[in-house]
């Protein structure tokens, strides 16, 4: 796995342009360091700085995001042929502050980049550089707010209290003077940034399909709103935000099952690669995708390194599929053929035949897609007393996969908690290995119930991760999370 040696408040300003639709629009050289004398003097530089923030987000999310979301949960087991001390610590619930994954510096580098953009674009507008370019100004700033909100939301679910930083740092030594704010303050920052992105307003789409899926749009902001509100158990707000996505014709569920199909995937499992559902993960940028982290080895030599975590395909990744998850799929559920091979290898993100590790280990990381939001909305409907509405959404996801749908009689008499279990099981089947499961268990208060028998998890304080010892040494105002003191 990649080691990240980023400093928390690095002044690096990577302006690598990674969206093909924008390459010709920017006639400036990539810049690797910030200089007030030669930067922020024309609007394309600010746009390049925004792409630099997305580029930094690529580094923060690959492949750590799936480790954060899956490595402590029940969807995976250790691959004994690729035993790693870090992954063993995750699955056995023996986290410690020396593990590389406990370092938050890569996310704070993205935050600092966003802060640079927000500060300098405001000054650029004051100098008249955005005269007649309101849409460009709002787009750059709206996306920077959304990126910062995403980073803070991601981090607070892992570490809880955070240093809340809204000004860029030009001197890395300044970081030692910032302590952690409680989650109330962090949530307020996330809410304010999302509101600012929505009010900018952030664009609804961009000129290319890839850009619409790989940059923050208004739908991506609403997906983040939905996730944020569900994390905070604000179900009515989550219903409002999710409905805006469900009524947006830009997004639709990728096809998988067809009752009229004569294809037998048991005879030739590789044919599953031809479905829109499978290609959502192998090719990216599907109609179902709302926001994903874009990697492209051929054009930019960027990799998501998912093959180090998952896969079989002749390699030895960290994890294999757990029997517990595999048993949740019925024989008719085609998602099992997308997700696993016959050796319990996790092949969801890789072509079942013809995969080339050297050039194709650049599968995108899908952060939000329509099925995720539909199932979050189902949870919110259940929590607000609309069980039939919730189960109708669950059945929509099951029907797409070819699985049998729930009848009214099958859940008659179920209480809210039991319906929530059904929905979480469906999320486990639908979103497995996409970095959701651990957060689902914590968010719904079921982490101890599920993980206790597996690895002894028995204290809510243990839900948070330890802070990296490296960060604590750099900043004496940081206090370690209580469970690890």
TrEMBL record:
Domain SusD-like N-terminal intervals: 73-229
Location of the RagB/SusD domain: 342-484
Location in or out of the cell: Cell outer membrane
Domain of life: Bacteria
Keywords: Cell outer membrane, Membrane, Signal
Signal peptide span: none
The keyword Signal appears for this protein: yes
Coiled-coil stretches noted in the UniProt entry, renumbered to this chain: none
The keyword Nucleus is annotated on this UniProt entry: no
InterPro entries, A to Z: SusD-like_N, SusD_RagB_dom, TPR-like_helical_dom_sf
PROSITE patterns to which the protein is assigned, alphabetical: PROKAR_LIPOPROTEIN
Similarity comment: family membership: Belongs to the SusD family.
Protein name: Starch-binding associating with outer membrane
Organism: Pedobacter caeni
């Amino acid at each position: 796995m990649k080691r990240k040696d980023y400093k928390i408040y690095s002044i690096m300003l990577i302006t690598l342009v990674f969206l093909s639709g924008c390459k010709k629009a920017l006639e400036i050289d990539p810049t690797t360091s910030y200089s007030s004398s030669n930067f922020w003097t024309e609007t394309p530089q600010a746009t390049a700085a925004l792409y630099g923030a997305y580029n930094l987000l690529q580094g923060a999310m690959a492949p750590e995001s799936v480790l954060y979301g899956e490595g402590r949960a029940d969807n995976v087991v250790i691959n004994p042929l690729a035993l790693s001390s870090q992954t063993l610590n995750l699955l056995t619930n023996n986290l410690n502050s020396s593990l590389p994954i406990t370092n938050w510096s890569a996310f704070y580098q993205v935050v600092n980049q966003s802060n640079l953009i927000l500060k300098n674009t405001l000054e650029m507008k004051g100098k008249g550089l955005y005269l007649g370019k309101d849409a460009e100004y709002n787009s750059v700033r709206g996306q920077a707010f959304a990126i910062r909100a995403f980073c803070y939301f991601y981090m607070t679910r892992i570490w809880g209290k955070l240093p809340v930083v809204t000004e860029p740092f030009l001197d890395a030594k300044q970081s030692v003077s910032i302590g952690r704010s409680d989650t109330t303050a962090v949530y307020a920052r996330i809410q304010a940034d999302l509101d600012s992105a929505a009010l900018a307003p952030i664009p609804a789409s961009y000129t290319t399909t890839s850009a619409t899926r790989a940059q923050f749009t208004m739908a991506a902001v609403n997906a983040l709103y939905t996730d944020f509100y569900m994390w905070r158990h604000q179900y009515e707000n989550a219903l409002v935000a999710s409905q805006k996505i469900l009524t947006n014709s830009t997004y639709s569920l990728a096809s998988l099952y067809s009752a009229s199909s004569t294809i037998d995937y048991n005879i030739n499992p590789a044919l599953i690669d031809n479905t829109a559902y499978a290609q959502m993960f192998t090719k990216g940028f599907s109609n179902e995708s709302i926001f994903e982290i874009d990697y492209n080895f051929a054009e930019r030599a960027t990799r998501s390194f998912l093959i180090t975590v998952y896969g079989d395909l002749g390699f030895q990744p960290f994890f294999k599929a757990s029997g517990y998850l595999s048993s949740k799929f019925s024989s008719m559920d085609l998602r099992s053929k997308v997700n696993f091979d016959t050796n319990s290898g996790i092949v969801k993100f890789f072509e079942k035949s013809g995969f080339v590790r050297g050039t194709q280990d650049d599968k995108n990381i899908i952060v939000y897609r329509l099925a995720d939001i539909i199932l979050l909305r189902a949870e919110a409907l259940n929590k607000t007393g609309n069980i039939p509405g919730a189960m109708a959404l669950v059945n929509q996801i099951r029907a797409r996969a070819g699985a049998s749908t729930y009848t009214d009689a099958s859940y008659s008499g179920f209480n809210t908690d039991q319906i929530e279990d059904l929905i979480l099981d469906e999320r486990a089947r639908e979103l497995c290995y996409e970095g959701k499961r651990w957060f689902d268990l914590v968010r719904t208060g079921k982490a101890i119930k599920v993980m206790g028998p597996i690895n002894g998890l028995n204290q809510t304080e243990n839900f948070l991760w330890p802070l990296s010892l490296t960060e604590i040494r750099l900043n004496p105002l940081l206090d370690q999370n209580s469970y690890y003191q």
